[in-house]
Amino acid sequence: MQGDFSRDTFDPTRRFSRVLRQQGRVELEADVNEQTSILLHYLRTLAADLMPMGAGSQEDAFDVNFAGGKLTFMGGHYYVGGILCEAPLGENTYEDQPDAWFMSDEDKAIDTDDPLLVYLDAWERHVDVNQDDRIREVALGGPDTSSRAKVVWQVKTIPVPQAVPPTKDSVIAQWGDDLLPLLRPAKGRLIVKTGGSVPTQEECEVSPLARYRGVENQLYRVEIHRSGRGSRDAKDGNPKVIGEATFKWSRDNGAITFAVRDAPSAAAKHDQVTLELASLGPDTQRSLAKGHRVELLNDSLVLGGMPGPVFRVESVNVSRREVNAVLETDGMPEGFTDDPDLHPILRRWDQRSADLALSEGKWLPLEAGIEIRFELDDDTFYQTGDYWLLPARTFDGRIEWPMTSDNPPKPIPQERRGVLHHYAPLAIIPAGGGPPISLRRKVPDLIPVP
Q1: Angstrom distance (rounded) from CA 148 to CA 185
Q2: Is 249 exposed, middle or buried (0-12, 13-18, 19+ CB in 10 A)?
Q3: Residue 19's closest CA among 8, 11, 37, 31?
Q4: Cα separation of 192 and 400, whole Å?
Q5: How confident is the model over 283-294, as pLDDT tens digits?
Q6: Which DSSP category does 241 fall into?
């Protein structure tokens, strides 16, 4: 969640059951957010245990039909990974589903040359006032006191692998081993330390002298920008691997955003563009200034799990609400539009280039003594939007990161914090587009205990 938070303290491995407020203490947003996460974790884990491959509460909920090249599905309630997905009652079309991510008509095409698996993808998206202005409280002058987490569900298709026979029994039997890895590739791991020039005996040790040297408490966010594999140098006789994955980082959890009123629908690399923003506050010169990197996003890119183009800010005109910037990445995404209904925004990042090459197995400096390292793994594929959070504290100069009990301690590699996607199979469309084979399940009836 890319909100203005001090930190995210929820950790299911600690097995906390609730947050207990104490009298006379300072109130923190992290405590309230952790209480919500504890409750959601309990409810969704219970639902997922009862319905491990998802299930609907109505007979025809998300029942798939395919005829004349058109895919439709019925509305209702369906649980995926314990998350409730609610589709409007009646018949819904694949092209017009509520959280559609299509950038072009080609994205909507369904190719039935091979058998297709129709599945449901559910996850949570962070929403602030730039995506939904109704969050503001007008009676108080319109402050954005809180943001929201929204359930996103998407009906998607993928060709059934040749190793999986396109039958109901085989797909269900091989769901976890052969199909889920295709939907969500292997997870990368990150480790973090402080130190910079402070020497240690081993490269993964954290020196007692190492400190976070920033002047403010920050919630750093390291996020994958472009999907792909990481790069690495030649080692032990193995050839050098050049990966395409890149990452970006923010010292404010990526929470600094600006609504865009007028954005380019197409531009070439290094083109000079003018972006008109919906509003600019009195602190804009601090939060958006020359040299900053900003990513242009809209709903289609976010819902499609795609990175936005990155610009380098050249100047900011507060009175005219304009930002002059240079496009640094390889052009605008095909099909990108400035449609206001898609809520275009600029999100500020703090690295000093468009994005950074993701090199595995080496320490990469961020700032203020913070260094990160992506772990070596031949099977890892990094996905756009994967992220890790690094709370940095000035009081003890520490990064809040799991450490070993060694002396000196060593940072423990961590898998991505999110975005967490959950999947459930819905149907198989046979090659050639025959009648779908349903894979749906129904919420189990509760059996009374004798």
Answers
A1: 27
A2: buried
A3: 31
A4: 9
A5: 555 688 899 999
A6: B
Strand partners, 93: 72
Q: At 259, which helix (H) or strand (E)? A: strand 257-262
The answer to whether 65 touches 436, Cβ cutoff 8 Å, is yes
Closest CA to 400 of 410, 390, 409: 390
Residue 72: both structure tokens together:
């439709």
**Cis peptide bond upstream of 408, omega within 30:** yes
Q: How many angstroms separate the CA atoms of 399 and 366, rounded?
A: 13
What SS3 state is found at 186? coil
CA distance 71 to 118: 10
> How many CB atoms within 10 Å of residue 49?
9
pLDDT for res 198? 47
- The pLDDT value given to residue 424: 96
d(CA 251, CA 296): 18
Helices (H) and strands (E) in the chain, counts: 6, 23
* DSSP bridge partners of 155: 120
Residue 198 CA: distances (Å) to CA of 122, 204, 260, 412: 44, 12, 43, 19
Count the Cβ atoms, other than its own, within 10 Å of residue 32. 13
Q: What is the pLDDT of residue 379?
A: 82
List, as one string, the DSSP characters of 408-422: S--BPPEE--B---E
What is the C-alpha to C-alpha distance for residues 385 and 1, in angstroms, rounded to an integer? 11
How is the chain split among helix, strand and coil, in percent rounded to 5?
15, 35, 50
Report pLDDT for 351.
Answer: 94
Residue tagged 């769901």 (tokens): 175
Cβ pair 283, 270 in contact under 8 A: no
- State which residues of the chain have pLDDT below 50: 197-199, 267-268
